[in-house]
Write a structure and sequence with these properties.
Blueprint: H1 2-8, H2 24-32, H3 41-52, H4 61-70, H5 74-80, H6 95-107, H7 116-125, H8 128-135, H9 142-152, H10 162-171, H11 180-194, H12 198-210
Helix pairs in contact: 2-3, 2-9, 4-5, 4-6, 5-6, 6-8, 10-11, 11-12
């Protein structure tokens, strides 16, 4: 695992990941406002929402949807509450419009996803329906899904996201046709060598990859 240590450094030096394990609302805001954004943008948005909503750290998706609607819609909420009208990458849509659409679609699934705990439980089994719902939003790319999972603090049973699989494929010089199952097996093996949890290694790789390429 020389490549991992070279790229990430020793585990003791890895940054503590940003996680909102009890708030799908903060997961959505932080992940979407991180996409191709200047450093600190998402942190500022989260801070303003916390000032506006004392219950921010336990707000689910429906809570954020209601807040947006009570404010007069996603665009007005962005302007008057979050003090930003930043657009989704490659679109002219305000980011909160994408968040509203994505959270609404997650809540409408056969197995509704309305909390960060729901997201973790569902993706530990299969991320298919929730992933498709989130990525159906115009302006959300694969990194938008990976970022949402990272912010929710997925458990060690969660499948590696696209950035992690891409990294492992590259450093091991494998063909592009690798699978999430293969990536998880490699991640587990590398984690054992480094004496860390697979989830911690996966998050460290994710942050390395997301800081190396434009986020979107």
């Amino acid at each position: 695992m020389e490549s991992v240590v070279r790229d990430l450094g020793v585990p003791a030096g890895w940054a503590r990941p940003v996680e909102f394990r009890d708030s799908l609302a903060l997961c959505a805001l932080h992940s979407v406002f991180s996409l191709r954004a200047a450093p600190g943008t998402a942190t500022g948005v989260v801070a303003r929402y916390r000032v506006f909503r004392p219950t921010a750290d336990t707000d689910g998706g429906p809570d954020l949807l209601r807040v947006m609607e009570d404010a007069g819609g996603p665009a007005r909420f962005a302007r008057e509450v979050l003090a930003t009208e930043s657009k989704l990458p490659g679109t002219v849509r305000v980011r909160t419009m994408g968040i509203h659409e994505g959270l609404s679609r997650l809540a409408a699934l056969d197995v509704p996803v309305t909390t960060a705990a729901h997201l973790r439980a569902l993706t530990a089994v299969t991320g298919g329906p929730a992933r498709r719902a989130w990525l159906s939003v115009r302006g959300f790319g694969p990194l938008a899904w990976s970022s949402l999972l990272v912010d929710a603090g997925p458990g060690s049973g969660s499948r590696p996201g696209a950035p992690v699989q891409r990294y492992l494929t590259r450093v091991l010089d494998k063909d592009a046709g690798t699978t999430p199952v293969w990536a998880w097996q490699v991640l587990e093996s590398a984690a054992r060598e480094l004496a860390v949890e697979p989830g911690a290694l996966g998050r460290a790789i994710w942050f390395h990859e997301s800081s190396s390429v434009p986020r979107g």
